[in-house]
Amino acid sequence: MSAYRIDRLDVERIDQAYPFVTLLAPTLGLDSWRTLCETVMNRERVGEVIAATNPLGYIQGICVAALRNDPAVGSFLDVPFIVIASTADEAGVITDMLAYLKTLGRAEGCDNLRIWTTEEDSWRRCLHEHELRPWDHGVLLPLSPTIASDERFVRSCR
After folding, report:
1. What global pTM score does this model have?
2. Distance CA 12, CA 9 (A)
3. What are the beta bridge partners of residue 5?
4. Among 11, 64, 109, 126, which one has the highest count of C-beta atoms within 10 angstroms of its own C-beta?
5. All domains of the chain, ordered by start, with CATH?
């Protein structure tokens, strides 16, 4: 059983999630964050801003995910940024977040999940699908049901 509730970020909590995002994108203004959320949440294809909350309702992590397709790798769930901010249980939050993302990707028929490497302009680049290739940055994880790959990813986040 998951210790965290992983689900789409409620529109009412966009501003509350903003401090998490500034950890990766310190120059991202609040209005730009709101625009990013609106853009991602209103895409015709799957696009989500996802939050991990603890049992008390506090946000412990945020990520942005979008469905992409590339002739070389097929469809994949793209995660331009993921921020975990738990002082007590980073591994638990990332494990639950990764499980949610993998389930979402499989439900959408994706072959892979890509977690981006951190770059200063990641938040800007994620809005321009035509500028991206799944092999130019990040970690591409197959969505086959294998526990070993999940464990390696969690260990690399510690």
Report:
1. 0.78
2. 8
3. 53
4. 64
5. 5-157 (3.40.630.30)
Residue 15: partners with Cβ closer than 8 Å, 6 or more residues away: 30, 34
User: Which residue type sits at 99?
Assistant: A
Tokens representing residue 16 in the block: 């509350």
- Report the Cα–Cα distance between both ends of the chain, in Å, rounded: 22
Measuring CA to CA, which residue among 41, 36, 39, 43 is closest to residue 18?
36
For 73-128, the DSSP string reads TEEEEEEEEEEE--SS-HHHHHHHHHHHHHHHHHHTT-SEEEEPPP-TTHHHHTT-
> 147-157 and 90-107 helices cross at what angle (nearest 10)?
140
Reduced to 3 states, what is the DSSP secondary structure of residue 46?
coil
**What tens digit of pLDDT does each residue of 64-94 get?**
888 888 888 788 898 988 899 888 889 999 9
pLDDT in tens, 12-35: 999 999 998 888 888 889 999 898
